Amino acid sequence: MSQQARQLQILKLFQQQQGAYLSGAEISRVLGVSRTAVWKHIEQLRSLGYRIEAVTARGYRLHGSPDLLLPAEIRTELETEVIGRELVYFAETDSTNDRAHALAREGAVEGTVVIAEAQKAGKGRLGRHWVSPPGVNLYASIVLRPSIAPRQAPQLTFLSAAAVARAIAEMTRLRPTVKWPNDVLLSGRKVAGLLNELDAETERIRYLVLGIGININMTADQFPADLRYPASSLALETGSTVSRRLLTCALLRQLDKLYALYLEQGFEPILQAWQDYFDLTGQQVEVSEQAGICRGRVLGLDGEGALLLRLADDSVKRILAGDVRPL
Ligand code: BTN
Q1: Is the CB of residue 182 below 6 angstroms from any atom belonging to ligand 1?
Q2: Is 125 in the pocket of ligand 1 (CB under 6 A)?
Q3: What does pTM read for this prediction?
Q4: Which of 160, 243, 299, 320 shows a CA-CA span of 20 to 30 A to 73?
Q5: 193 alpha carbon to ligand 1 midpoint, in Å?
Q6: Torsion over CA of 279, 283, 284 and 285, rounded to 10 degrees?
Q7: Which atom of ligand 1 is nearest to the CA of 126?
Q8: Model confidence over 136-150: pLDDT tens digits?
Q9: What is the CATH number assigned to the segment(s) 71-275?
Q10: Ligand 1: centre distance to CA 306 (Å)
Q11: Which atom from ligand 1 is nearest to the alpha carbon of 119?
Q12: Is 122 in the pocket of ligand 1 (CB under 6 A)?
C-alpha cells in the first residue's frame, strides 16, 4: 500500500474519532504496521500542514487540517463513478494540462484528475499565460476517453463550463454566468477559465484533457495589471474565504454527473445545463473571430453550441469560435 493510501487511512480514522484521541496502538492495528511506522506517517502528515497533537498514554489528536487539495482530503468527500478514480497531486508543476497529457499517453484511466497547488507555466487559451500562485486557487486537468469524433470535442467544453458554474453556485450561493463558449463569470468578472485539449486521429479521439482553472481565494493584488477581461475570485465576490477542498469536491461531483448524462443522452441536456447560466440572449455583443470583429444581437445557440447573431443587415451569422464582449 502506498504512503498516500496510509495517510488517507489515518485521516479517515481521525475523522471517525471526531476530535477524540486515537491511540498509536489502534492506528497500528488498523493499518497493520508497526508503531514506528505510524509515527513516521504522523510526521509526514504534520509536514504537510496537519496539526496533530501527541499525548503520552492517550495517543494522537487532529487539531486542524490545511486547505490543501491532497488526494487524501478530496477522496473522503468524493462519491463519483468516473471522475477522480485516480487523483494525482503536485505541490507545484509546470502545467496540470501537460502532466495530464503525459499520464494519458502512458495509459491513465478515464477520469484521472491532476491537481497542483501552483503552476509555473499555467496555460490559458490562445497561447496566453494563466497566473497560478500557490495555495489559493484550483488548477485541475481531467483525462477523458469518450468514443466521439474530434469535431464533437467542443461539446465537452460546454460540459465543463456547466459543471464549474454549478459548483460555484452550490458553494457560494451566488449566480454565476457563462461567457460563450467557456469562461465562467461572477458579476461580469471572470472567475474561471477552461482549456480543453485533445489527442485525436481523423475519426476518433484518443483522449481529451479538460483543463480547469478557478480563482478561489486570490486577492486583488495577485491579479496581473494587464488583464484583457475583468477578473475576480470567489473570495473577492463573496467577501469570505471559500474552502478549496469543498469546491473541488463539488466540481468533480458535477463533472461526474454531467459526464454520465452526456454518455447516456448526448449533447442536448448538456447544452441545456449550460444555458441555465447564459444571460446574453437578446443582448448586443461584439465578437472577435480569427477573421475579424463583428457586432450583432445574440439570438441564442444552435444545437451544436454555435452562437447565432443577428447582424445590422438583418442576416443571421453562425459563429463557431471567438471571444464575446457585451456592448
Ligand atoms: C483561459 O481562460 O484562457 C483558460 C485557462 C485555463 C487554466 C487551467 S489551470 C489548469 C489547467 N492547466 C493549465 O495549464 N491550464 C488549465
Answers
A1: no
A2: yes
A3: 0.88
A4: 160
A5: 6
A6: 10
A7: 3
A8: 999 999 999 999 999
A9: 3.30.930.10
A10: 22
A11: 14
A12: yes
Residue 143 Cα to ligand 1 middle (Å): 14
Domain range annotation of the chain:
3-64, 71-275, 284-326
Cell numbers 479538460: residue: 210
Distance 42 CA to ligand 1 centre (A): 34
pLDDT digits (tens, 9 = 90+) for 50-81: 999 999 999 999 988 888 898 888 887 788 99
> What pLDDT is stored for residue 6 in this prediction?
87
pLDDT digits (tens, 9 = 90+) for 221-254: 998 877 767 899 999 999 999 999 999 999 999 9
Name which residue sits closest to atom 10 of ligand 1, judged by CA. 139
CA of 140 to the centre of ligand 1 (A): 8
Name the pLDDT band for 42 (thresholds 50, 70, 90).
very high
User: Is 135 exposed, middle or buried, given 0-12, 13-18 or 19+ CB atoms closer than 10 A?
Assistant: middle
Q: Ligand 1 pocket, 194 CB below 6 A?
A: yes
Bridging pattern class, strands 87-90 and 113-116: parallel
Query: Which of 116-120, 228-232, 233-237, 307-311 has the least mean pLDDT?
Result: 228-232
**What cell numbers appear for 86 in the block?**
485516480
CATH code for the part of the protein at 3-64: 1.10.10.10
Neighbouring CB atoms inside 10 A of 202's CB total: 6
Q: How far apart are the first and last CA of the chain?
A: 57
Cβ pair 190, 229 in contact under 8 A? yes
Whether 97 lines ligand 1, by a CB cut-off of 6 Å, is: yes
Residue 302: the pLDDT is 94
